[in-house]
């Protein structure tokens, strides 16, 4: 396709200010807005799935499925030809689920045939790289990134992802997901940055900045902070079920990452599937107007999640019909509707009936057009199909994916078997559902060419080429494992020098109904699915050292393995270079440094299990079953070296409310390997007018230390790190004693402590 068709006023109608790239964006928006019909305005507020998505669904789904399957729904009798016609008429503002540059350029060419030639903005779920579209770099998932505590890496991954997206003519990522994950049953944990509001906030902010840049260049994309709000703590652990949270919990735990994302410049936000305290988020005026617009001064636009405005009627039942649902959502603050054919007609009717002022429609369209102008889409609506692969999957990006994988894999247990000695373990049996599968790519990933992905088995062979690896394939599906293959692995384990079991969850979206983890794939327990525990136990019964590697998105309660195996590695979903990174860690080529960004419970019965709980949460221990402590705590992770913390010092022991405390601690690498230690600072308000958590992460640092090296690590505790909401929900710093804790994890035994007072 030709790449021209730039919209400029060169030699044209000089009164068409919106076509003049030298004019201020605000003037261009207002000029275009006054030229638009009501129908064109409402069309800008509607987003559709791409034509190839429609074709694929229409070919395999029945009429009833097309009507009722909200994960894939389209409409009987409404075909891709109708969408193409609407696009040519300027009645579609955005597309999602467009996965190739060819389709994106084609749909854009249709928009260029419209009366005003308003370009399409293409959105895609580029969660950890633009991985939903093949032949792009697949980075480790967000939970991996969070376990690295590496904010600079968050920025770098987002920046590289933006470049790969723009190379495919895609302009808008539905990321970062800044929900605070506090329920391990919920399938989307791996899409988040974990359970701590402070860590989630910092990673979310850097991701926003990485995606958007200045939001005015050909390598910038629009970030979307999501899902607003509370969907990560549903009452039964399932995606989209009701959430009931106090305003205090919202403001202390769930709001901070969103507010920070807004202040960092995020120009789009997605509301959550769920109802919040009885009101669907998609029609929640308090969220979208009072908090987002009036309190945080959000200037961007709000987009719905998939058909969730329709769910105000057909699920939540707070609107009697679809038209009323559209009315409620728009008047509450919604700007763009994600997918559906009834929006245009019904919203136009609502305006003509006088129920929705056209000025309200103009508010939303201004916000949407502003982004399209700022991203340069009017000047360059197409991407270069010939040059796209020069940017995607380039060496620089793959190197980043490998580094991120190395830094995000957590060593949970090691009784001395790791790192592996290649001269000692000549024959290694490898088995498990995730040993040789692209599932390491994680949720929000399409299948890749085999040569683009290094599986764990391939990584082992790469790093230890002289070792004999005996692979027993268990298939990819944990729910349908073959008992005969389990028995075969158990038998062959006895002939090996060492055994590796790669277990966990299945997350690949192209087998949607077979997954056990990911979006809309929630669990009633957190045990390993199928025969995986049996496999681990039978292999370990060989008497040979057995290592467990976990590939998953949610925390898994691997109690038996923790009690009986010498080593456990939590790999999460480490991306396309993950197999190499896992092998490098197993063989000591890389010293593990990651720390858990989320608590791992013993079992589902312990939920909610978080480190920053209130003082009374475990006042009474469980009468039977598991203890009131986690299997592995937040901030925990082992290394092949050892670190010593001492000489914790507070420069000030008493400060005013507007003062700050400088904190220092000496950290020494007492082992014989170089490493990186993630030093963590926690604070507790000892006595307060409202209850406060037993500890809260308030700072951290990734500290590289050579063997034998010591370094003094410094932090500053500023007033914002001491503030909380009082009885009247006013944010204050209260006088009194504060406990400072610095160390290697959130576990009390890993922390040095001192106190200071605010007067």
Q: Describe it for me?
A:
This protein has about 750 residues and is α/β, with parallel strands linked by helices. The chain has 3 domains: about 35-390, TIM Barrel, CATH 3.20.20; about 410-605, Rossmann fold (3-Layer(aba) Sandwich), CATH 3.40.50.1700; about 645-759, Sandwich (Immunoglobulin-like). It is about 30% helix and about 15% strand. It has 21 helices and 26 strands. Strands 11-16-15-14-12-13 form a 6-stranded mixed β-sheet, sandwiched between helices. It has a 5-stranded parallel β-sheet with strand order 4-3-2-1-10. A 5-stranded mixed β-sheet has the order 18-26-25-20-21. A hairpin with a 5-residue loop joins strand 23 and strand 24 (about 730). Helix 2 packs across helix 14, helix 3 packs antiparallel against helix 5 and helix 9 runs parallel beside helix 10. The chain is globular. The N and C termini lie far apart (about 70 Å). The model is unreliable at about 1-5 and about 10 (pLDDT under 50).
């Amino acid at each position: 396709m030709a790449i021209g068709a730039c919209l400029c006023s060169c030699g044209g109608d000089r009164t068409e200010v919106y076509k003049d790239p030298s004019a201020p964006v605000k003037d261009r928006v207002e000029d275009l807005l006054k030229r638009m019909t009501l129908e064109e305005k409402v069309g800008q507020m509607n987003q559709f799935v791409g034509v190839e998505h429609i074709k694929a669904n229409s070919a395999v789904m029945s009429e009833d499925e097309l009507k009722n399957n909200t994960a894939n729904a389209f409409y009987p009798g409404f075909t891709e030809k109708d969408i193409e016609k609407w696009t040519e008429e300027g009645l579609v503002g955005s597309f999602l689920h467009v996965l190739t540059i060819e389709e994106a350029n084609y749909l854009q060419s249709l928009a260029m045939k419209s009366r005003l030639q308003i370009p399409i903005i293409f959105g895609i779920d580029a969660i950890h790289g633009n991985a939903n579209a093949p032949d792009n770099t697949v980075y480790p998932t967000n939970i991996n990134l969070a376990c690295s505590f590496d904010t600079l890496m968050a920025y770098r991954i987002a920046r590289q992802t933006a470049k790969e997206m723009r190379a495919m003519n895609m302009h808008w990522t539905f990321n970062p997901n800044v929900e605070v994950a506090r329920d391990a049953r919920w399938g989307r944990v791996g899409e988040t940055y974990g359970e701590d509001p402070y860590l989630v906030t910092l990673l979310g902010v850097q991701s926003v900045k990485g995606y958007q840049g200045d939001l005015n260049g050909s390598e910038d994309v629009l970030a979307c902070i999501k899902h607003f709000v509370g969907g990560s703590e549903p009452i039964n652990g399932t995606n989209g079920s009701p959430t009931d949270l106090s305003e205090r919990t919202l403001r202390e735990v769930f709001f901070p990452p969103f507010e920070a994302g807004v202040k960092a410049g995020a120009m789009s936000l997605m509301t959550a599937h769920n109802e919040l305290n009885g009101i669907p988020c998609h029609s929640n005026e308090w969220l979208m107007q009072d908090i987002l617009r009036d309190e945080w001064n959000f200037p961007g636009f709000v987009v719905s999640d998939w058909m969730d405005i329709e769910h105000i009627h057909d699920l939540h039942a707070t609107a009697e019909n679809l038209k009323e649902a559209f009315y409620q959502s728009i008047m509450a603050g919604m700007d763009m509707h994600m997918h559906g054919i009834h929006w245009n007609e019904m919203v136009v009717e609502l305006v003509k009936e006088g129920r929705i002022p056209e000025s309200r429609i103009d508010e939303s369209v201004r916000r949407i057009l502003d982004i399209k102008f700022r991203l340069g889409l009017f000047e360059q609506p197409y991407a270069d199909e010939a040059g796209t692969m020069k940017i995607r999957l380039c060496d620089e990006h793959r190197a980043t994916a490998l580094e991120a994988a190395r830094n995000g894999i957590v060593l949970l247990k090691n009784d001395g078997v790791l790192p592996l000695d290649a001269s000692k373990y000549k024959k290694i049996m490898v088995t498990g559902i995730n040993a040789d599968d692209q599932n390491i790519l994680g949720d929000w990933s399409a299948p890749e060419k085999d040569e683009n992905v290094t599986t764990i088995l391939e990584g082992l062979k790469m790093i230890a080429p002289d070792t004999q690896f005996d692979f027993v394939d268990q298939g990819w599906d944990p729910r349908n494992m073959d008992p005969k293959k389990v028995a075969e692995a158990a038998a062959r384990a006895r002939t090996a020098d060492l055994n590796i079991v790669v277990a966990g969850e299945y997350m690949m979206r192209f087998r949607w109904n077979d997954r056990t983890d990911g979006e809309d794939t929630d669990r009633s327990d957190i045990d390993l699915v199928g025969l995986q525990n049996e496999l681990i136990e039978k292999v370990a019964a060989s008497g040979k050292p057995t290592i467990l590697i976990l590939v998953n998105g949610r925390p898994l309660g691997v109690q038996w393995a923790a009690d009986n195996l010498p080593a456990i590695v939590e790999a999460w979903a480490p991306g396309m270079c993950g197999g190499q990174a896992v092998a490098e860690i197993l063989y000591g080529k890389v010293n593990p440094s990651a720390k858990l960004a989320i608590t791992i419970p013993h079992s589902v019965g312990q939920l909610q299990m978080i480190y920053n709980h209130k003082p009374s949460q475990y006042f009474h221990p469980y009468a039977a079953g598991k203890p009131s402590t986690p299997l592995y705590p937040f901030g925990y992770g082992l290394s092949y070296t050892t670190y010593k913390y001492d000489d914790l010092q507070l420069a000030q022991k008493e400060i005013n409310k507007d003062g700050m405390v400088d904190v220092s601690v000496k950290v020494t690498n007492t082992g014989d390997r170089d490493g990186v230690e993630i030093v963590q600072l926690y604070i507790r308000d000892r006595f307060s007018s409202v209850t406060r958590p037993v500890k809260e992460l308030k700072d951290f640092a990734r500290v590289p230390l050579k063997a034998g090296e010591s370094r003094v690590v410094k932090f500053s505790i500023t007033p914002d790190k001491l503030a909380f909401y009082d009885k009247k929900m006013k944010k204050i710093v209260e006088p009194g004693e504060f406990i400072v804790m610095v160390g290697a994890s959130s576990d009390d035994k890993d922390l040095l402590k001192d106190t200071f007072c605010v007067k």
